Amino acid sequence: MVDFELTPIMKMAREFTHNYARDVMRPISRKYDEEEHVAPTEFIQKTHEMFTSLGFSFSTTKAGGGSKEDDAESKGKHDRPKMEMNLLGAIATEELAWGCPGLTLRIPGPGLGGAAIMAAATPEQKKRFMKILNGPKPSYGAMALTEPGFGSDASAVSTTAVKDGDYYILNGTKIFVTGGEMADLYVVWATLGKDMGRSGIKAFVVEKGNPGIKMTRLEHKLGIRASDTAEVVLEDCRVHKDNLLGGEKKEEKGFKGAMQTFDATRPIVAAMATGIARASYDYLYEDLVVKGGLEINYGKAIHKRGYVETVFEDMEAKINAARLLTWKAAWMLDHGLPNLKEASMAKAKAGTVVDEVTQKAIELYGPEGYSRRHLLEKWMRDAKVYDVFEGTGQIQRLVIARAILDYTRKELK
User: Fold this and answer.
1) Mean pLDDT of the chain
2) What is the DSSP string of 166-191?
3) Confidence band for 410, pLDDT divided at 50, 70 and 90
C-alpha cells in the first residue's frame, strides 16, 4: 500500500531544505543566472559542508530496486523501509529547486553519473567510485551520453570502444553533459561495434584527469544557467577494463542496466520541475492573494468564479498531481518495485505542468512578469528544459504507451 504520510525525518528534511533554499539559494539565484559561467564556489563548498555535517549520503540510493536481502534489512514496522531515500530525495529536491534549479544542479554529490553506477556497477565498483563521489571534498559524477548525432535514442551511440589488452580505447564527442566542467568522473556510453546493436553499448567510468578526455566547450543556455553544461571529447582515451560498468562477464547488465539509471533520476527531475512550478505559484499567491486581497473560494460554483480565481485553482491541482506522481515513482523504487512507467509519467506530467504554470504566472502578473526585477521570467526560462532533458516529453509518452499496451520498442516507435 502506498503511504505518503511523511515521516518525522522527511518533515524535518523538507523544512530544512526549504529554509536553505529560501535563505541561501534564492538570494543569489539571479546573480548566477546572469553570470552563467562563473562557478558558485562559496555556495558549493558551503552546501557540501552542510550535507557532510548532517551525514547525508546518496550511496544507498538504488535504481531498478533492491534485492530481497536489502529489503529485509531495511524494513521496519508495517513493512515500510526505515529510510526511503528516493522519496526523501524527491521531497528535498523539490524544495531546493524552489530556491533555484540551476544551483540545485550545482550541489555536490554523485549526480547522474552516480545513479548509473548504482544501477549497473559491480559491488567493487560501487564501493570504489562512490567513495570518490561521497568523499571529503565536493565531488560530482556526470553522465556523458548525448552526441551530436542523437538525443533521446540512446541506442544510437556512435562513440567507439576498442579493446586493447586490459584497456579500452574510447573515441567520440559527447554534448550537453550536465556538470561536465565540475565533474570528477564521467560515465561514458560507447559501442563495441555498430553491428552488435544495443548489446554492444557499454558504459565506462572515466575519471577526471584521465589522458584523452577533455572539456572543449561550455554551452550558453536559455535557463538553468547556474548549472554548467559542457561538450566533452574523447581522443584515444585509454580506460582500464575494471572501469567497464558491470564488468566484462556475460551476466553484466550492460545497456539495460544502465538504462535503469533513469528510473531513479526521472522522479528527481520531476521533483525539480514541481519545485519551479510551485515557486511561480507561491510568488503569485503571495502578491495577488495575501497582499492583494484576492479571495479564492473553493466552494463557489464554477460559473461564479472569476478568471484569476479559476487559474489559481487549476495551477494548484496540476502541481499536486505532478507531486503525487513523483512521490509514487520514488516510493516504488524504495520498495524494490519496477517503476519504469511511473517514472516516465512523473517526468512527462511535471515537464508539462512547469511550462504551463510558469507561463500562466507571467500572464497574470502582466508586464511586470517580463521584468528582471522579478524571478518569474527566470523560472519560465528554467522550466523549458524539464520537458527536454533525461528524455523528452514525447519519449516519455512512448515509454508509457508501450508499458500500458505491452508493446515492444519495435512495435511502437
Assistant:
1) 90
2) TEEEEEEEEEEEETTTT-SEEEEEEE
3) confident
**What's the pLDDT band for 77 if we cut at 50, 70, 90?**
very low
Write out the three cell numbers for 99: 530556491
- 3-state percent breakdown (helix, strand, coil) of the chain, nearest 5: 55, 15, 30
Q: Where are the alpha helices (DSSP H) in 152-260?
A: 254-259
207 a catalytic residue: no
The count of C-alpha atoms lying within 13 angstroms of the C-alpha of 111, restricted to the half-sphere facing its C-beta, is 28
What tens digit of pLDDT does each residue of 203-213 get?
999 999 999 99
Q: How many helices (H) and strands (E) does the chain have?
A: 14, 7
Q: What is the pLDDT of residue 401?
A: 97
Domain boundaries, the chain: 8-109, 141-256, 258-405
Give the other-Cβ count within 10 Å of 182's Cβ: 21
Q: Check: pTM over 0.90? Answer yes or no.
A: yes
Which letter, b or e, does each residue of 163-180 get, where b requires 16 or more Cβ atoms within 10 Å of its Cβ? eeeebbbbbbbbbbbbbb
Among residues 94, 147, 342, 390, which one is catalytic? 390
Just give the CATH number of 141-256: 2.40.110.10
Q: Tens digits of per-residue pLDDT, 214-265?
A: 999 999 999 999 999 999 999 999 999 999 999 987 555 666 766 788 899 9
DSSP conformation letters of 83-115 = --HHHHHHHHHHHHHHH-HHHHTTS-B-HHHHH
CATH number listed for the domain at residues 258-405: 1.20.140.10
